[in-house]
């Protein structure tokens, strides 16, 4: 079935929504997040007021469900561990840091980040000349920086790996103040910045351009709550800077409460993500 492209929407070099007029007069609408997360393509028959969703093939649907379950579960559990670690640091004994709890939570964040990247790498693609989505060959990796969903999830995954440097370093004992700032604090801040960049790209994707409020869109809520968590994380990280002159953090309470609140945001977004499936 032949088609002609009508409109392309997005921001900068990124396309997040495409609309085609098909030969039979119907209209097909592809949206990046909707296709990647739910395996859906909108098709509106000629003269119809509302579009119908056309689902990808069964192979794609099964993949999307499994990857979504892993990503949602990992961020939910990982956020829970981070919240527990912050609680131990804030309310536990003076010597308690919650470092091992954070470390375990970081492993779940790594898993969730990679599962999110795999969702993008193996997202259903449009079939040539047809109003449908088909599953590509399974891949463990791809390099597609021109796709905003790939770039967002890749930056997110790299952010979780950078956090891993911070979490492993925090397990070391006998570090000087300079070593703490270099091996623990600096990777923490870099990871938070990467999370914020990833979240902004995700907002651009779901909003098809400039970020705005879309309260009726589940995907928007997931991205917005995650972005709030990222903002709280970077406030926490900046407050945890250790002053060389005094050997103490800028504000321990803000650091712990920021981590706690940010972690709960990621857990909440993980729960919401469990409902964003085919």
Can you describe this structure in just a few lines?
The chain has 278 residues and is an alpha+beta fold.
Topology:
Blueprint: E1 3-11, E2 14-22, E3 27-31, H1 32-38, E4 40-44, E5 52-55, H2 58-91, H3 99-121, E6 125-126, E7 133-134, H4 148-169, H5 177-207, H6 218-239, H7 252-273
Antiparallel strand pairs: 1-2, 2-3, 3-4, 4-5, 6-7
* Overall 3D shape: elongated
Largest sheet: 5 strands, antiparallel
Terminal residue distance: 25 Å
Spell out the helices and strands N to C. EEEHEEHHEEHHHH
DSSP helical segment count = 7
Tell me the number of structural domains.
Answer: 2
Q: Please tell me the overall pLDDT.
A: 89
Number of strands: 7
Share of helix among residues? 55-70%
Based on helices, strands and strand pairing, what is the structural class?
alpha+beta
Could you list the spans in which at least 5 consecutive residues all have pLDDT below 50? none
Task: Write out the strand line-up for the largest beta sheet, numbering strands in chain order.
Answer: 1-2-3-4-5
Describe the structure.
This protein has 2 domains: about 5-55, no CATH class; about 60-275. The mean pLDDT is about 90. The strands form 2 sheets. Strands 1-2-3-4-5 form a 5-stranded antiparallel sheet. Helix 3 runs antiparallel to helix 4 (about 150-170), helix 5 (about 175-205) packs antiparallel against helix 6 (about 220-240) and helix 6 (about 220-240) runs antiparallel to helix 7. The chain starts with a strand and ends in a 5-residue tail after the last helix. With about 280 residues, the chain is α+β, with helices and mostly antiparallel strands. The protein has helices spanning about 30-40, 60-90, 100-120, 150-170, 175-205, 220-240, 250-275; strands at about 5-10, 15-20, 25-30, 40-45, 50-55, 125, 135.
């Amino acid at each position: 079935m032949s088609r002609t492209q009508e409109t392309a929407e997005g921001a900068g070099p990124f396309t997040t929504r495409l609309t085609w007029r098909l030969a039979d007069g119907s209209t097909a609408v592809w949206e990046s997040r909707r296709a990647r997360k739910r395996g859906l393509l909108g098709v509106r028959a000629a003269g119809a007021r509302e579009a119908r969703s056309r689902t990808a093939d069964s192979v794609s649907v099964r993949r999307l469900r499994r990857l979504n379950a892993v990503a949602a579960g990992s961020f939910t559990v990982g956020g829970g561990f981070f919240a527990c670690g912050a609680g131990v640091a804030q309310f536990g004994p003076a010597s308690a840091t919650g470092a091992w709890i954070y470390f375990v939570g970081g492993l779940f964040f790594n898993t969730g980040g990679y599962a999110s990247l795999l969702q993008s790498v193996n997202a259903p693609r449009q079939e040539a000349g047809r109003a449908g989505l088909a599953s590509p060959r399974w891949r463990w990796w791809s390099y597609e920086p021109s796709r905003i969903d790939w770039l967002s999830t890749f930056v997110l995954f790299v952010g979780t790996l950078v956090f891993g440097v911070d979490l492993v370093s925090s397990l070391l004992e006998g570090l000087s103040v300079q070593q703490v700032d270099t091996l623990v604090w600096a990777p923490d801040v870099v990871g938070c910045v990467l999370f914020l960049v990833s979240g902004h790209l995700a907002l651009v994707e779901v909003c098809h351009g400039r970020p705005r409020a879309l309260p009726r869109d589940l995907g928007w809520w997931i991205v917005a709550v995650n972005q709030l968590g990222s903002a709280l994380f970077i406030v926490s990280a900046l407050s945890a800077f250790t002053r060389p002159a005094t050997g103490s953090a800028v504000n321990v309470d803000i650091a712990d409460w920021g981590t706690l609140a940010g972690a709960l945001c990621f857990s909440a977004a993980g729960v919401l993500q469990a409902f964003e499936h085919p």
